[in-house]
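In keeping with the milestone schedule agreed at the kick-off meeting, the structural modelling team has produced records for the first pair of proteins. Each record is given below as a sequence line and a structure-token line. The laboratory manager (R.T.) confirmed that both were archived under the project's standard naming scheme.
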Amino acid sequence: MRDDLVDLLRTIDSAVLGERIRTARLRAGLTQSQVAGDAVSVGYVSRIESGQRRPDTGLMAVIADRLAVTVDELLLGVAPDRIAELRLQLDHAELALATGSPDETLEIVGRILVDPAVEDLAELRRSAGYVRASALEATGDLQEAILVLEDLAEASPPDLDWIDGLTALSRCYRESGELGRAIEVGTQGTRHIEEYELDGLDEAIRLSLTVAAAYYEQGDAAYAARLCQRAIDRAEAVASPVAKAMAYWNSSVIESMRGNASAALPMTRRALAVIEATEDARNIARLRTHLGILQLRLDPPEPQEALELLTHAADELAFTGAGPADLADNRIAQARARFLLGDVDGARRQASETATVVRSSMPILAADAFALLGQIAVHEDALDTARSHFQEAVLLLSGMGADRAAAQLWFELAGLLESVSEPAAALDAYRRAAAATGLVAPSSRRMTPATTR
């Protein structure tokens, strides 16, 4: 008998098991005496069926054989063929997600989770939950994904799927602006990883890198960089291609956000070279997008090379079912590359379409798109239009929390507002940039000395 069935036999409700054995016996048209045979007494079979006794593994196998059913069916309450059918459906759902159809994934998983047979299949139900969370994240429904992942984090055992689930939860918290929760979840996961000595596994390294990203967004760039360096060291030590690619990738993101694109570029190229040897098509596409963005941040920028990379990556992202944030990042970068190359109409069209798509779900990306539209308007001497676009960006950013990405965009927006003779708005944007990094005005820190009487 398989180990998981042995464990289930020890913990299953005796009354539930007894009822299943009785139902199978009646269905087979056998008496308790025929089931007992020479293995046990008729009275013992009767007590098993009434839930007063629990058979050991040997007797369980004998009973299942005489009833012409499997041990799986008696312990799980579901026939093996039905279990195989449900697992095949879940495989189909995962394939749909991997090929860019998260809505189809949600439809399939929804059918699986309401199937009465799944009620007794805890592992299958758990796996379906993780697939559902991934599909929800891919559609941009971060709040619903968080609810699913929070439940799974509490109910799941601390195994590799659980670690991946914590990584997804931390990432969803970060993308929704809940940076404190993103760090807290990662820290809890790290304690369990250390306890079970799983530090060198790809899953553990991915979690630490996700937490590093949250620290960076919170403004602690130095600590985030150290976490990434530790992840690189662990990945090199265990010679894991996936972990190395993720570590170099996250380090390059942090370097680029610190304004050091020239240092980030070789890290990204190294990560891409490593991950291209794998079959992780989605992350290959995401890395190509990141590399294209870095080429636009160089001094001087390399827009032609960037656009070629970005258009290639866009096709790959669409095929692999990337999330809306990845698609939006790519499209905004493409628009910026087209603007630098002189394709003003193409840049405006792509930035405008992206702003419309992500405005309600991803305000910081929409603000970035509106800021680019404002730059295009300035280029065309349409200053009123530019002011309108910049104000749209201001409104979107005003609803954001304090994080590094928001601070960077506020700072860039301040300079753009200055360029259209909006000094008051520019000053306010500079102040908001400072506030988003955690800085406070001197007056709020001023202390009143004690007076003597």
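The second protein of the pair:
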Amino acid sequence: MKNILFYLLGLSLSCGCSDTNTSTEINSTEEGIFAKLPLPAKGERVATFAGGCFWSLSEALSELKGVNKVVAGYAGGTANNPTYEDVSTKLTGHAESVQVYYDPSLISYRDLVKAFFFAHDPTTPDRQGPDEGPNYRSIAFYRDIEEKRILDSMINQINNIHQYSDTVVTQLLRFKTFYPAENDHQGYYRSHPESTYILEVSQPKVFKFRKAMYKQLKQEFQSTNDRKL
């Protein structure tokens, strides 16, 4: 039965998903297909992470107090303006990623990193659940020395307290470029609530995240989580 479920999930994946900064942030030239990448508002900061399918990661991080918006996309590779199909070949070097726009007066970068490590399993190289390949690897992109220091500290803490049974394998990469994904992938978790993949893979991850980060959730998601307990 488990093999049948993973086969069905595989079919679902084939149709979808499975500051001091000097780097570039690029919009696709194919107007209308790819999401627009907003510029940070005044006082707003940006963080970029990869942790498996961007459908659940986008939803989880968007539920945090102080997070204003999350854009799904691709980062960590070398190909320019990749499509979902390009990234799915596992040849671009890119991973499914999210770009988080947040208010540092409401949520710190450290708390955002903490949430990222609760939102996925950072101990499985090139895999998250049924999703396999380098395009599903765990990456935290840092924009300056302080962010790198926080990431190193958080990983050491997670390993020292044995938060997971295995060691964290998350890559720490200097942020270079983030490419926004196609519009169909933006907000996918909420727009496809009856999807088999969402119900069987994404939803359990989001519910687990809500329990772990309850105090940092926006009020409406605290209430939603209470109803699930």
